[in-house]
Amino acid sequence: MPLYKTITVTPSITVYIWKVTEPESVLAKGIKLTPICAKRMEGMKSEQHRRAFLSIRHLLAEAGYVDHDLFYDENGKPHLKDGNRISITHSNDFTAIIVAHHSDEVGIDIELQRDKILRIAHKFTQIEEYRTLANNEAIIRKLTIVWGAKEALYKIYNEKGLSFLQHINVVEFDLHDTEGVAEINYKGLYSSYSFDFLEFEGYTCVYAVKLQ
């Protein structure tokens, strides 16, 4: 399947989402990897991971880039050689990137909605705050959004030691809002972010932009 969805966040920020349905041989057509990325892909034992890896290169093409335009820093954060910002995510059947021109700092995350999140929620949020929701489905949906928002912020901040539970706070929001605000308070430094979320086919996608 080609591009699943394109979202124009602002005139300078775009989200691209791909649904990975093609076999690896089809996804590999027309894709030229750098030696480093080719070696990374060769080391992937899972075909699903290889397909996701290749689909992200198709998303790069949608944004006007090739694999050679992408590099990673020592912390594993992706960058574009022209100075524009990028964040990358994948989860099972979906991959996505967010690309920002100029100085906008952005992050993105896709998560499959599943009840496992109920068991790990205490590691990243105050779970008792969610008990007022109508049912488990609503709790799972909201927890997945909160996790996705914190993951997106973590990708932007990109500093080891940053704790989802202690340092990243998602301000209360309603499931009908489709957007919210989150903040990081770490080592005496405060920063705030806006985030948007959408749900599709049992998945949640959250993308965040640092507020100036």
What can you tell me about this protein's structure?
With 212 residues, this protein is an alpha+beta fold. The protein has two domains: 3-104, Ribosomal Protein L22, Chain A (Alpha-Beta Complex); 109-210, Alpha-Beta Complex (Ribosomal Protein L22, Chain A). 26% of the residues lie in helices and 34% in strands. The chain is built from five helices and eleven strands, in the order ββαααβββββααββββ. It has helices at residues 24-28, 35-42, 47-62, 116-120, 136-157; strands at 3-10, 13-19, 70-72, 78-80, 85-91, 94-100, 106-112, 168-170, 179-186, 189-200, 203-210. The strands form three sheets. A five-stranded antiparallel β-sheet has the order 7-11-10-9-8, covered by helices on one side. It has a four-stranded antiparallel β-sheet with strand order 1-2-6-5. The mean pLDDT is 93.
Global structural class:
alpha+beta
Which fold does the CATH topology of the largest domain refer to? Ribosomal Protein L22, Chain A
What amount of the residues lies in strands?
25-35%
Overall helicity? 25-40%
- What's the overall geometry? globular
Give the spatial strand order of the biggest sheet: 7-11-10-9-8
- In the predicted model, the low-confidence regions spanning at least 5 consecutive residues are none
How far apart are the first and last residues' alpha carbons, in Å? 37 Å
Indicate the radius of gyration in whole angstroms: 17 Å
- The CATH architecture name of the largest domain reads Alpha-Beta Complex
CATH class membership of the largest domain: Alpha Beta
The overall pLDDT average reads 93
User: How many strands, which pairing sense, and closed or not: the largest β-sheet?
Assistant: 5 strands, antiparallel
Say how many strands there are.
11
The CATH homologous superfamily of the largest domain is termed 4'-phosphopantetheinyl transferase domain
- What's the multimeric state? single chain
Order of helices and strands: EEHHHEEEEEHHEEEE
